[in-house]
């Protein structure tokens, strides 16, 4: 029992499960917009379980699929699988169990969420192979997280409103932008290993501009979301907060200085998602 608990602890550290906070607030935005307020406690519980389980399955699968790549990359060679701190069999078991919990959570919401759960899992798991075939894998990752608000809407309503796809698109470009920034760290390795990424094909200076363009598109989509749902001042303040934080995030990273990239990636993006949710929630509740 003790080895299992130890391996589970190492796995949770490997997948940075606490970083579920990146997409969860956007999923909760989708749920609150669908409900016109707070969803029921039952819905809220199973949406959170589904989100955490889905991300856990996706991250663990990514680490398993990329184990050989991570072993060859000096930046990632100390991760649990290439370092030999976990077995591939344990990680695969973790993926299967997490996927099962996700499907269980979907079944507790409504029929459509259950029917679509294998589709969501396919998107989340197959992302891991896209960097082998396309430089735009950053947007595939973004879409994998971007489906969260649409999924939460379906969880509450049992149907899909096209307006919520504006938030799906916004999250897609948000995540795609900061993943382009993050990929700048692996420019040399991607060139050597033949992996595909925006920095590899366009160079780091141009990649920074691509990330800025993605985040500009995100902001425009958030404004469109505000208009389409008739949201008011609080949501507008939320968009303004996102703009300010994105500008600060990009100020931390220069083509000749990537030393602040981890701070830009982890801290700012967590703050962005939480703040936006807080302001959207305030707006939705204010209108009740």
Compact description:
The chain has 288 residues and is mainly alpha-helical.
CATH class: Mainly Alpha
Query: What is the succession of H and E elements?
Result: HHHHHHHHHHHHH
| The CATH H-level homologous superfamily | UbiA prenyltransferase
Secondary structure tally, helices: 13
Assess the beta-strand content as a share of residues.
Answer: under 5%
How many strands, which pairing sense, and closed or not: the largest β-sheet? none
- Tell me the CATH topology: Tetracycline Repressor, domain 2
Percentage of helical residues?
over 70%
Low-confidence stretches: none
Topology:
Layout: H1 2-14, H2 24-35, H3 41-65, H4 67-72, H5 88-107, H6 111-126, H7 137-157, H8 165-183, H9 187-193, H10 198-202, H11 204-228, H12 233-251, H13 261-287
Structure description:
There is one protein chain. The chain is mainly α and 288 residues long. The protein has one domain (2-287): Tetracycline Repressor, domain 2. 75% of the residues lie in helices and 0% in strands. It is built from 13 helices and no strands. Helix 3 runs antiparallel to helix 5, helix 5 (88-107) runs antiparallel to helix 6 (111-126) and helix 8 runs antiparallel to helix 13 (261-287). The longest helix has 27 residues, at 261-287. The model has no long low-confidence stretch (mean pLDDT 89).
